[in-house]
Every structure is written in C-alpha cells, then in structure tokens.
Design a protein that fits this description.
The structure holds two protein chains of two kinds. Chain A is 67% helix and 0% strand. By secondary structure, chain A is an all-alpha fold. Chain B is α+β, with helices and mostly antiparallel strands. Chain B folds into two domains: 80 residues, no CATH class; 66 residues, no CATH class. The chains are: A mainly alpha, B alpha+beta. At the A-B interface, helix 1, helix 6, helix 8 and helix 16 of A face helix 1, strand 2, helix 2, helix 3 and helix 4 of B.
C-alpha cells in the first residue's frame, strides 16, 4: 500500500513538511484565491437573502422545495464517503484506507458545513430557527414536532457533524504531536502543542486511544447509514408520487457513497500530483476507489429501475403518471436522460482496465458522476412536484440568479476550506502510515492499526530504487 | 529512560523489565504497538463499559425527551397518531444514543489518559522529541518499589538500547 523506500522518519518528514515547510507553493495561492473569490458569492447571496427573504429564490407553488433541498442532499451525500472510508473500511480491515482517510474525513466535515447552510438559510430567519429546530424549554412553551422527519433530520445531521468532527480530531491528535515536536516556529509549535493536548505516545495512552478509535468507528458505521436514510425519509414519509417509495433509504445511502467517492477522487488526483504524495496515495488506491464507485453506481441504477417498476406496478394513476411524466412525457424529460447518462452510462467505462486505471478518465468520470448525482436530486424533487395532484396548480420551475450564486458560492466555500486544510493540517494520517511500514513489525507481526493480523505483507522490495 | 531504535527492541526490553519485577513503567512509541499491552502488562481499559453507559444515557434521554414533550408537557394529536408514537421517536433517540456514546468514547479516553497535560517530565529529555517521529522509549519511574538509581540504571543499560537518560522532574 506504500511505495518507495520509506522509513518511520521519512514518512513523518514527507507528510509533515507540507504543513511545516515555510514556503507555500505558488499553486496553493492561485487555488485558494479562486476558491475564496467564488466563496464571496455565498456571502453576497446570504446577505441579500437575509435582507429580502427567500422570495429571491426561484421556488414557487407547487415547487416549494427546489435548489435548497437539492443542494442540501447533494452536499450531505458527498460527505458520506469520508465516514465510510474512516469507519466502515476500518472495521473491514481495509488497509488502503489509511492514506486517504484524513482528507476524506476533512471533506466530510466541509461538505456537511455546506449542506447545513441550506436548511438553516431556507428558514429565512435562521436566528429564530433555534426554537423551530432544537428542543429547549423556551418561554413560549413550544416544542419541535418529533413525529416529523424534518426534526429527525436535524438530529441526524447535527449528530453526524459532531461525531465526524470528533473522529477527525481524535485521528489528528498524534499527528499534531508530531508537528509540535518538529515545528521550528515558536508560534506554530505553541498552536500544535495546544491542539495535541500534550500527547506523548505512551503505551497506556495508545491502548485506550485505539479502543476509543475502534468504538468511534463502530458508532459511526450505523450513523452514516442512518443519516442519509433519514434524509430520504424527508421524502418517502410524504405522499407525493415519486417520493413515497420504500426503496428510498438504501438507494439514497448508495447514492451518497457513490457521489462521495467521486468527490474523493476529484480531490485526491490533483492532490497526489501537486504535493507529490504518489508514494502514499498509490495507483492502487485510485483503482480501488474507482471500483467502489462502480459498485455503488450499480446499486443506484437498481434504484432507478425500482422506481420505474414501483410506478408501473402500483397501478395507481398518479404514480403511473409521475413515471411517464418524469421519463418521456414531461417537460423535464431531458434531465432524466442526462441523469441516466451521467450515473448509468458513464460508469460502464469502468469495466475496462483502460479507463479504470487511467487517472485522467477516473477524474473525468468522477466529475460526470458528481453532476449526475446533483441531477438525481433535481429529478426527484422538481419532476415530482411540478405536476401536482391538481392540474390547475401545475407550474414550471427555473432557478433564479440567487439560487445559482448560492450554490456556486458553497462550492467556493468548500474548496476554500479544503485549501486551508491542506496548508495547516497533515493531509495523510502519519501515524497510521507508520504502522504499514515493515519497520513497524514486531516478531513477524505487522502493527496493524485495526487489530492483530497474522499475515505479513511486503508491499515493496527494499532493493528498489526510492521514488524520486 | 532508555531509547531504542526499533519496535521489536522496545517490546523485548519491556518484557525484560516486566520480568525483572518493575511495575511503574511506561513505553513511548510513534505508533501503537499491540505487543506492548502484553509486554508491559497493561490491563484492558474500562472505556468500552463507559461508552455503553453513555449510549444508554443517550437512549434514555432521547426517549425521555420525546415522551415528556409529546405526552406530558404538550400532548397534541398530529396525523392521527397516538401521543406516544414510538416508531417516530426512534430516529431522534437513536441519534442521541450514538452522540452520547461517541462523546464518552472521546472524552473518556482523554480523561483516562490524563490529557490534556501540556507538561510532563519526559519532555525534559531533548531526544524525547523523536518519540513522535521514529524512536522508541522505555521509562521506569522513580516511584517504582524496586527502583534504585544505581541498579536500575545498570539494568537499563543492559537492555540493548541506544542510550539511557535520566528524566528530571
């Protein structure tokens, strides 16, 4: 899983130097600058929104939910790959997760931050939303309605954000201690010392640390599956044709992981080049991620097929009409077929080694999949709502300028955070990579971070010349 | 405190130290070493039980909260469902269970480890900065009943380590 002739020290230097090295690479400033400028769109739109209310969006009757919920579901879905990599792959003892879990978790946090903005801002008066959303004893004697999926969502998303943050931070503690001991600059030394809480790598501490990490992984696994299930219940608990389907929870979870892996690939392909991390994020990692993307993509395709089948098999005229309207009769037929192209056709190329093993094609397919997953939510939400039960209320939906600027703004915000993360935090978990080195073996036992594993695996030949 | 080059030397030395009867010992390494638990005689932590208790607390508070709100404080019929509509109360309860168990796991771990602790005598040894990088250290504390400066130092020098340091309080 690790290429090149690395030792415990060289691993620490190579990953730590990205953060500690004085000179920030020029491309960082360009990337950060562009992302930061795009993020200003979010600031602008938010101020305009708070001043004027959500009437500035294109939402109407009957399409009362549009870009706000599409973007919310899209972002929160992207976040799922981070938790999947850090928790589920840890429990499944997949060693290749080690070099990608750190930034996949960071991606989760930032994606959830972007996602949370939409439901908060769609209330129009977010400062009042505290008593709409959270149960606290207020003077009005009002409580939230716990029978509503929207309140389940509040609990699911806030728990998810908190646990992801804890998971990420716990993983960071030993690495921050490494940075503390290597930093020359007094100020950064102080910051890293504070953040690492005096970690000193004691055997007793490691023992409890690993237990805590494993427990967190065990807790995050049902959590990650529950979050997108609960998000899907926002739709499927309602009576709207096109939403009211039992396939929704698993289909949403698979779609989330699908979109998430696409985003991890979009981020890690440039990252490994720009920071020369090819020894840690190897070709094998990319191929594995491509395969996960393909597998979850097939579950998503199954979901599309089942939706159409449910519509037909239900025999209910509204369901049949919805499916016909969505696929070929309605004005939004193009969005459905674009979705099938992006999520269904594009991943078929991954069957072939030529595409699966090419970084360029993986990158392109990942972008197409990200677009496709956004379209999926557009199709589910807009095509289900715009043809209401009552033909007199039928209407078309088109986003306003502010819908688009807000969405673009969150993308800028997301990448701004990613750039800051890459600059100030070790992008790969240093201590976990150390456990993969042959040096970390004791009497033929690899120090597998997850559990004791008897098999010993040499991933490289020591006589090979080191990677430049 | 003795310094070692590899994890294997550290584990072997820790076994010798334990066999020699020292109990107030500790080892420091840049990554977790499972053999150390057995070599140093570390008992399994109570952390999992604490987490279970945390999870149960979350479960009860979730159920208690929804019950209090919809049955005791503000009973109102919505959607023809009973006041105590358990299936609808499962998601918030479930999330609170996970939340409190996760908090217990993280803060319980830090608490049992005695962290945050910005100062510790081992940091006084300049070479100790390498413990988070590539070197391994083994410590016998002064409080150990078998501790005797002269003989303990001679014993540690015989452990095939790199160098033996005195840790100043």
């Amino acid at each position: 899983m690790i290429e090149g002739d690395h030792t415990l020290g060289s691993v620490s230097d190579k990953i730590g130097d990205v953060t500690l090295k004085k000179k920030t690479p020029f491309h960082w400033f360009i990337g950060f600058g562009i992302a930061f400028m795009i993020a200003q769109l979010l600031l602008f739109t938010t101020i305009w929104l708070l001043a004027n209310g959500i009437g500035i969006w294109g939402n109407n009757q009957p399409v009362g939910w549009a870009f706000d919920i599409i973007n919310f579901v899209w972002w929160i879905g992207i976040g799922h790959a981070g938790t999947l990599i850090s928790a589920i792959l840890l429990l499944l003892n997949q060693k290749w997760r080690t070099s990608i879990n750190r930034f996949a978790e960071a991606m989760t946090l930032f994606a959830v931050a972007c996602a949370a903005m939409f439901p908060l801002l769609h209330t129009g008066r977010p400062w009042l939303a505290i008593y709409w959303l959270f149960p606290y004893p207020n003077v009005m004697g009002i409580w939230p309605q716990f029978r509503s999926p929207l309140i389940w969502d509040v609990f699911a998303v806030s728990t998810y954000a908190t646990v992801s943050l804890l998971f990420w931070y716990v993983g960071l503690i030993p690495d921050l201690a490494t940075l503390r001991d290597r930093a020359k600059n007094k100020f950064f030394k102080f910051v890293y010392a504070t953040l690492s809480w005096g970690w000193r790598g004691s055997a007793r501490h490691w023992h409890r640390y690993e237990l805590a990490y494993l427990i967190l992984a065990g807790l995050s696994t049902p959590l990650v599956l529950s979050v997108h299930s609960i998000v899907s219940l926002d739709f499927s608990v309602s009576q709207v044709p096109g939403w009211h389907a039992t396939i929704f929870p698993p289909y949403f979870v698979a779609g989330a992981i699908f979109a998430g892996f696409a985003m991890v690939l979009i981020l890690c392909i440039p990252l490994r080049h720009l920071y020369n991390m090819k020894d840690f994020i190897t070709h094998t990692h990319l191929v594995y991620m491509g395969k996960v993307m393909m597998a979850t993509g097939f579950i998503v395709i199954y979901g599309y097929a089942m939706e159409a089948f449910f519509g037909w098999y239900s025999g209910a005229q509204y369901e049949v009409f919805m499916i016909k309207n969505r696929i070929w009769e309605g004005p939004y037929w193009w969005s459905y077929w674009l979705l099938i192209f992006c999520n269904g056709i594009s991943i078929q190329f991954l069957w072939f080694k030529r595409f699966r093993e090419s970084e360029f094609w993986l990158f392109v397919i990942s972008i197409i999949v990200s677009v496709g997953m956004w379209l999926e939510r557009f199709v589910i939400i807009v095509t289900s709502l715009h043809r209401d039960f009552l033909p007199s209320s039928w209407a078309m939906y088109s986003p306003s300028m502010f819908d688009i600027s807000m969405f673009t703004g969150t993308i800028g915000f997301f990448f701004t955070l990613i750039f800051l993360f890459v600059r100030f935090v070790p992008i790969i978990s240093i201590f976990e990579v150390r456990t993969l080195l042959p040096e970390a073996m004791v009497h033929g036992h690899q120090q597998d971070f997850e559990e004791n594993v008897n098999e010993v695996e040499y991933t490289y030949d020591r006589t090979d010349p080191p990677n430049a | 405190m003795a310094e070692f080059d590899t994890a294997e030397q550290l584990v072997d030395a820790a076994r010798e130290v334990r066999d020699a009867g020292y109990t107030k010992t500790d080892a420091f390494s840049p990554f977790p070493i499972h053999e150390m638990d057995e070599a140093l005689g570390i008992k399994r932590s109570i952390l999992p039980y604490l987490c279970f208790a945390g999870g149960i607390t979350g479960l009860l508070s979730g159920l208690g909260l929804t019950y209090f709100v919809h049955v005791i404080d503000y009973p109102i019929i919505v959607g023809g469902r009973p006041h105590f509509s358990l299936p609808s109360f499962i998601p918030p309860t479930y999330e609170l269970t996970i939340l409190l168990a996760a908090f217990t796991a993280v803060f319980g771990m830090l608490f049992l480890n005695g962290l945050p602790r910005p100062y510790h005598p081992v940091f006084n040894v300049p070479r100790f900065a390498l413990a988070t990088r590539e070197k391994f250290f083994l410590l016998i504390e002064q409080e150990d009943p078998k501790f005797d400066y002269g003989s303990t130092r001679t014993f540690m020098e015989g452990l095939k380590g790199q160098e033996v340091f005195d840790v100043e309080e």
